[in-house]
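pls ignore typos typing on phone
NAP + seq
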Amino acid sequence: MRVLLTGAKGQLGQSLSRYIPQDWILLAADKVFLDIANESNVYDVISDFKPDVVINTAAFTSVDDAETHIDFSESVNNLGAKYVAQASSKYGAKLIHVSTDYVFDGNSSVPYTEKDTVKSLNVYGSTKHKGELEVLKYHADAIIIRTSWVYSEYGKNFLKTIFNLVEKNKDIKVVDDQVGAPTYAADIANLIINIIKEGTLQPGLYHYSGDTVMSWYDFANKIAAAMTSSHSKVEPISTAEYRAIARRPKYSVLNCDKIEKFGYKRSCFSKGFEQSVRALIDESKKL
Ligand SMILES: NC(=O)c1ccc[n+]([C@@H]2O[C@H](COP(=O)([O-])OP(=O)(O)OC[C@H]3O[C@@H](n4cnc5c(N)ncnc54)[C@H](OP(=O)(O)O)[C@@H]3O)[C@@H](O)[C@H]2O)c1
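k done
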């Protein structure tokens, strides 16, 4: 199995590199080697490497920065996804593309299904949605996985930010009126690896997230609680008080029934939210 992985230095990229079977031939391409916003770079790498499967995790994921870097966000999240889909299709590679819960506006009170209407509140979400449409247009067999609130041992993410603040005994204020489902990157990686191994999942759009719904404030409390020596005070604040640059959905929960019907379990790798948080905190303490 020849696998081309884009965005290899990101959270999900590093998780995939860690768990992809040793006997697969993996080209883990970071942004320097493969800039997905550069059309000829994309075609050159795919035509040279001739992958059986392309996993596109590359994205401009900084939700607030995207508001002031609209062209850049378009070039990576929309056009980049298009080039990857076109080149993968041209050279006969399957494609697994990763997208986001932020395509929705969060006005629902029940988990979003793949059939629900998309209406993003921010540039990141709307450019990611345009990228989804390009993938579906240019690659007939593509699988798109929408996920949410990704955390891991790698890169920058909410768990690591809170861990570092709590470790320094800083008091923190965390938004309590945005609700979602944190998703461990190793779980998404394991899902993608199993999809490739089994090769039976129908092309199309799928939702996949962790199975525990909470606010960012709840998430921060669980991280602090897992750090037994903490003296930090975690206080709830509203989205309005936090004053982030980009708007975010209040309710960002994905309905994952469709992928579960194909036998893919949630939290398959971490065996549950609490356990994965605790394991990551233990790992971080060793660094
Ligand atoms: N993080 C989340 O909470 C979250 C939630 C829902 C969905 N997702 C989706 O899940 C996927 C993986 O996210 P992640 O958390 O692993 O994000 P991440 O840690 O930000 O990784 C994305 C990687 O893509 C790279 N990249 C940026 N522009 C690129 C370009 N033009 N060409 C190639 N690579 C480029 C980034 O490099 P630099 O860092 O050097 O720019 C980074 O290494 C993305 O599609 C994202 O939209 C993420």
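Residues 6-7, 9-13, 31, 34-37, 57-61, 76, 80, 98, 100-101, 128, 147-150, 155 surround NAP (CB under 6 Å). Residues 70-90 form the longest helix (21 residues). more later
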